[in-house]
Amino acid sequence: MFAIRSKADKRWVYGTDYRCSPAKQRLSYERAKLFEDRAEAESQFGARLINPARYEVVEVLLMEAPTINLPLIDILVKELDGQMMKTLGDVFKDLERGLKPVATAKEREDKE
Question: In degrees rounded to 5, what are phi and psi of residue 84?
């Protein structure tokens, strides 16, 4: 599989916003538009109005992410000290580092 990546900051192209003039590439560190072969990806440079001096086609390996066995997967937001809110992505990063969520939704319900 292949994807288009910014040479400057290594973000992936996941879409193109044609409402702007010139068209603006939608970039992300976490999402990418994938292509089956290099020729298909390179053909998108013209279709998406991508500047080849700023972007490159790179081969990517598609891997399945390991599943995280949480008691409740509906943890979309985590509270720390009742003040700071974290997104699901932050929760997964904490879990990768071995930190436990402060409280799951079920634990919060049990306390009330």
Answer: -85, 135
